[in-house]
Amino acid sequence: MRVLVTGFEPFGGEKANASLEAVRRLRARIGALEIATTALPTSYGRSLPALEAAIARVRPQIVLCVGQAGDRSALCVERVAVNIQDARTPDNDGAQPVDTPVVAGGPAAYLATLPVRAAVAALRADARLAVVTRSEKGCIVVSRESTQAVHAVPVERVVDTTGAGDLFAAGFLFGLARELATEDAARLGALAAAEVIQHLGARPETSLKALAEDNGLLG
Description:
Blueprint: E1 2-8, H1 18-24, E2 29-30, E3 33-40, H2 47-58, E4 62-65, E5 80-82, E6 109-111, H3 116-126, E7 129-133, E8 139-143, E9 147-150, H4 164-177, H5 182-196, H6 208-214
Parallel strand pairs: 1-3, 1-4
Antiparallel strand pairs: 2-3, 5-6, 7-8, 8-9
């Protein structure tokens, strides 16, 4: 069975789009599924023709379109597509349609034909714990039971981000090993990352243990 999975190009001045980065990491085959991927332009005028061309080329049995929503704190499976273009910001072509149908003369909305509830249940069952870091926006901790947003630790000046991800991971995993709550483990990771980005080099210049104790994360 052939599946077409699409992501969107970066927009709004960003260098990357999470949807496209995720799609690019898909394997060419997952079980009985043959996966084809394509990048769609972040353009109200060009995205639908590009999608139609990809469908004609791949001839898939399943089409899954993935997008990025900066205000979402978790992966969301959408079951309704509203037939309206109502842009808060201009697209990459500078267009900003308001109250304009995506498909002129079409229905008010389209329902997904994939099993949405089963997809959500499978996502939660597939992994016990996941963390998504979001630079200055902090991180999202997702478990089977909940989704938690943890803020980044404010810094006066960012000097060098080398090692920030490694230090976050080290702090988070250390917190889990010490049986901290996942939210506190994420705060520990954020604290370690904040220390290392304030100076050159990827090695901490301040005792992370002392920082953790000062912030009430270690007794």
